[in-house]
């Protein structure tokens, strides 16, 4: 499966689950970092600094993997392997940072987080899935 099905989108957008982003460092080491995200159509979207390990790694090699899980019984997860597209458009940065801030910090703080994170030096990372693996209710 290479698309985000309705059940996958429902899982990804429920609550404030944090994605675990897997990427490769310049020296070949695999790294994992948590990211806040939103789903925008068929893409998973997050922001990161251009000069962070994530930003530098994705500029060098756009391949990545993201895993989002529910750590409560009966346990579920979605893994998305994909290709990152990086953007620096100021309007897109502000929009995505505001939407992400609203999701994780609440609507009353969305604009605050948008202004803080939607600034020059930040990137909008759009993940186009190449493979989607889902497993719901594993302990049932």
Automatic annotation (TrEMBL):
InterPro entries: F420-binding_dom_put, F420H2_bilvrd_red/Heme_oxyg, Pyridox_Oxase_N, Split_barrel_FMN-bd. Keywords: Oxidoreductase. This is Putative pyridoxamine 5'-phosphate oxidase-related, FMN-binding protein [Nocardia brasiliensis ATCC]. Residues 12-132 form the Pyridoxamine 5'-phosphate oxidase N-terminal domain. It comes from Mycolicibacterium parafortuitum (Mycobacterium parafortuitum). It holds the Pfam family PNPOx_N. The keyword Oxidoreductase applies. GO terms for cellular component: cytosol. GO terms for molecular function: coenzyme F420 binding; oxidoreductase activity, acting on the CH-CH group of donors.
